[in-house]
Design brief:
17 helices, binds iron/sulfur cluster, about 500 residues, alpha/beta, OB fold (Dihydrolipoamide Acetyltransferase, E2P), globular, 6-stranded mixed beta sheet, Rossmann fold
């Protein structure tokens, strides 16, 4: 089921590093997957790449878990937003997320009754066309859970339009102390595999590859067992587990493209065009199968809580849970650990206001780290930053150019290739924050690049024609099967006699 080759890109941070990326067994063994049910949720209308959804509830409304509270405007590149708790809408107002995004948000006070929308019942008819599958995923509000939050339906539709042959599932979670994706694989392997198989079939890919670190034996075994079961229903697909060396940041698409296909994906190019492949995060695949099989929209996710005093901890939380509630539930008081990071400790953003900062669809980890002042000196030209940079640029030289306002020269030196991985700042003995300056410069260019990629392909996306979900209906009822774009044939149907994954 897996070839013996172990793939990797060059450079990055290595196993055995002080952050202990690969030997996290003490952390992994401490993992407990528990549910946290917050007193209130804050649901930003923009948790995805695209324009914000528009709230469709008002203060005073009573809502049920699974109910849609925000919808995209007609034709907008956006996804709906659903609540994972029942209760009362207390406010709708603009908030600023730690990444600087300003967005309207729906505030809901949890009545702790866990009342679900009646229509959230497992789907009985799993004979779905590609357009229906993509429509369900779109209506479920699913966006990429491991990256920029690109709407999954749009990415699937684009991959289908480009007739990719390979469907890649990123199980390579390599950020320090973050194991939410790995926990998803161990706890819900059938959901990950079935979701990936259904999506692969929807885009027309024939080969389904699960990319995972060679050292992840438990997760590999869980995937292998699920693949054996899924093969019965997806005999038109070939399944394979591809092993990678554990190294940070292993799962980035350009590095995957280089490692797996030995292809360089340049700025402005996609993995679809360059490698005939499309790459999705494994937690996103789990969410897709929840929507397809159980009719459940994206309203909760697994996240890791990491911090010295509490060790490792994975929790299943409603989207919108305030970080302060996670911290209160999971960490012992420790005055030395008082920097809260929205994300992992290499690339995350420090939170100023945990009371009003929610877990969003892309939050995979909340880290609590020591507040230590790092001594800063001038560059000592040790070259460590260049040695570890996974995209082979020279962070120290680019940093100096940017400090002198030489943006054009920095571009020529490859600054726009920066993937904001944080490795250079982490290894710098002079304590220079190279990443912030270089990543900010690179990301300005990337917004334009990503926008144009999506806009240029908007015609192929078939995205705006998908029906918008009504607030009170199920994803199934909403999708009435009027499939004007595609004739449904037996070959195209997805038959899923699925007997359930491992639920907790
Ligand atoms: S320059 Fe960018 S890609 Fe290179 S190590 Fe620094 S943050 Fe990572
Ligand atoms: S790691 Fe820091 S000190 Fe060493 S060359 Fe890079 S910027 Fe200079």
């Amino acid at each position: 089921m897996s070839d013996r080759k172990i793939y990797s890109f060059y450079k990055g941070l290595f196993p055995g590093d002080v952050l202990n990326f690969s030997k996290r067994s003490p952390f992994v063994k401490e993992i407990m997957l528990e549910r946290i049910y917050p007193r209130r949720v804050i649901l930003p209308m923009k948790m995805h790449y695209g324009v914000p959804a528009v709230p469709i509830v008002k203060a005073g409304d009573l809502v049920k878990a699974g109910q849609c509270v925000g919808l995209p405007e007609k034709g907008a590149f956006s996804v709906p937003v659903h609540t994972g708790v029942s209760g009362k809408v207390t406010d709708i107002k603009e908030i600023t997320l730690p990444n600087g995004i300003r967005t309207p948000a729906v505030f809901i006070e949890n009545d702790m009754k866990r009342t679900r929308l009646e229509s959230l019942k497992p789907r009985t008819n799993l004979k779905l066309s590609a357009t229906e599958t993509i429509g369900i995923i779109r209506n479920a509000g699913i966006c990429g859970m491991g990256g920029e939050g690109i709407p999954t339906a749009a990415k699937l539709a684009r991959a289908r339009g480009k007739a990719v042959t390979d469907f890649l599932v990123n199980c390579l979670q390599s950020e320090p102390y973050s194991t939410s994706d790995l926990t998803a694989i161990v706890e819900y392997p059938d959901y990950v595999v079935m979701g990936a198989a259904a999506c692969a079939r929807a885009v027309g890919a024939k080969k389904l590859y699960f990319l995972i670190s060679s050292g992840r034996k438990t997760e590999r075994a869980a995937l292998a067992a699920s693949i054996s079961r899924a093969k019965r229903d997806f005999d038109d697909l070939t399944f394979e587990i591809k092993l990678f060396r554990e190294r940070f940041p292993q799962g980035y698409y350009r590095l995957v493209g280089k490692a797996l296909y030995n292809r360089d994906i340049d700025e402005g190019e996609t993995i679809e065009d360059t490698c005939d492949a499309v790459l999705f995060n494994c937690s996103t695949m789990l969410a897709c199968w929840e929507a397809i099989s159980d009719n459940i929209p994206m309203m909760s996710r697994i996240i890791s809580l990491s911090g010295g005093s509490s060790g490792g901890h994975n929790v299943l939380v409603p989207i919108g849970t305030p970080v302060s509630e996670l911290i209160a539930n999971s960490f012992t008081e420790d005055s030395t650990e008082n920097r809260i990071i929205w994300g992992n400790c290499l690339t995350g953003i420090e939170i100023e206001d945990p009371e009003n900062t929610p877990v969003i669809k892309m939050t995979s980890v909340i880290s609590v780290v020591r507040k230590a002042e790092i001594p800063r000196t001038a560059c000592i030209h040790c070259g460590l930053c260049s040695e570890c940079c996974p995209v082979s640029i020279s962070p120290n030289i680019i940093f100096e150019m940017l400090a002198q306002g030489l943006g054009q020269k920095a571009s020529e030196e490859g600054a726009r290739r920066c993937i904001s991985c944080g490795c250079c700042s982490y290894v710098c003995p002079a304590g220079i924050d190279l990443t912030s300056a270089i990543a900010e410069f690179a990301n300005k260019g990337k917004v334009i690049e990503t926008n144009s990629l999506l806009d240029n392909n908007a015609a192929d996306l078939d995205y705006s024609v998908l029906p918008a979900p009504a607030a009170e209906t199920s994803l199934l009822e909403d999708y009435d099967g009027e499939d004007k774009e595609e004739e449904k044939t037996d070959d195209d149907a997805i038959v899923l006699p699925f007997d359930g994954g491992k639920k907790i």
